[in-house]
């Protein structure tokens, strides 16, 4: 484990453990308590945090990743003072602002105007200062037309806007944020990112819990990975992202053992498929920007005039990133007889950005009008390497040069004039 330490820690977590008692049976009713006053309830123990020790530096942008139930949100609540650790200690130097659970501190029966002031006071502002910053908060949230609407009539997205707008009005030294970048529309997400970057540049320490490995690599100075309540990696954001993706990939591989949906008339069926590395060896992990290949084998169950063999690649968000077939590439199989077998091979330089991808092999009639077999998400592969933006990495060169205003084209001048 990488253990780079900050020069001047503002958050110190020293051997923190936290355990929750989970009842095995539903809570007793009042009647049951009266009739059975000596009856005991049995509990199971859930160890949410296991002797966690780490330090977060002043002005650091620190990321925390982990699968659901790994303990990352519990740690955030211990830092915020919401939970008390069963063992160990948390020391925080500075004023803390937290965005951990949506709606905490808001009253649904009050208007946005009332909630902004009350929530800001609860977070540490004086009533006068809360009222003074009210307009800035509403403007940031873009909710000027809804300030006198009760909060129970707000959508979850509107509540997120309002809560984050209040948070950034605080004079906080430390911000604790749990998945705020994953909600709201794209414009609001970008506004959040720009605001957090500005505050971090001004010296605010930011701790971000997220499942987004791209955000960890793009924004964070350091990161931590949690699994089953334990700290398994601390340090380089790229390595934390890679290990987190690997944890999810191992789970996805186990789920892949379960039969996936398949469709078609069954005349020709996909029986096997796999990815291969640059040496031709079967692989469930591929390196970014290295040669690789995809293969599928099909069995002919009934005589057909011809068939088209193909595949689609989708990413973890189920977005189609690539599709091809023999018919698209003007390759004909000719008549196929029952008992025959074919193998499809597709070789390419791996320009997929790092992440998890699924392959869906398929067989159709040569005109693609009739589906014979499609095995959805039949193969899973993990692409490793340094992440870049977007879905594919186009190898490119970039340059710029200064030009004189006289060199501007007529079209550019016309466009400027129209503006």
Topology:
Elements: E1 9-23, H1 30-35, E2 43-57, E3 61-66, H2 72-80, E4 87-92, E5 96-99, H3 112-122, H4 127-132, H5 134-141, H6 156-167, E6 174-178, H7 186-201, E7 205-209, H8 213-219, E8 222-227, E9 230-235, H9 237-256, E10 262-263, E11 268-276, E12 282-283, E13 285-287, E14 291-300, E15 308-315, E16 320-325, E17 341-349, E18 355-364, E19 371-375, E20 379-384, H10 410-418
Parallel strand pairs: 3-7, 3-8, 5-6, 6-7, 13-20
Antiparallel strand pairs: 1-2, 1-4, 8-9, 10-19, 11-12, 11-14, 14-17, 15-16, 15-18, 18-19, 18-20
Helix pairs in contact: 3-6, 5-6, 8-9
Overview of the molecule:
Strands 10, 13, 15, 16, 18, 19 and 20 form a seven-stranded mixed beta sheet that branches. The chain has a six-stranded mixed beta sheet with strand order 5-6-7-3-8-9, with helices on both faces. It has helices at 30-35, 72-80, 112-122, 127-132, 134-141, 156-167, 186-201, 213-219, 237-256, 410-418, and strands spanning 9-23, 43-57, 61-66, 87-92, 96-99, 174-178, 205-209, 222-227, 230-235, 262-263, 268-276, 282-283, 285-287, 291-300, 308-315, 320-325, 341-349, 355-364, 371-375, 379-384. The protein starts with 8 loop residues before the first strand and ends with a helix. The chain is globular, with a radius of gyration of 28 Å. The chain is of the alpha+beta class and 419 residues long. It is built from ten helices and 20 strands. The mean pLDDT is 84. The protein has two domains: 61-84 and 92-252, P-loop containing nucleotide triphosphate hydrolases (Rossmann fold), CATH 3.40.50; 262-384, abc- transporter (atp binding component) like domain (Coagulation Factor XIII, Chain A, domain 1), CATH 2.70.50.
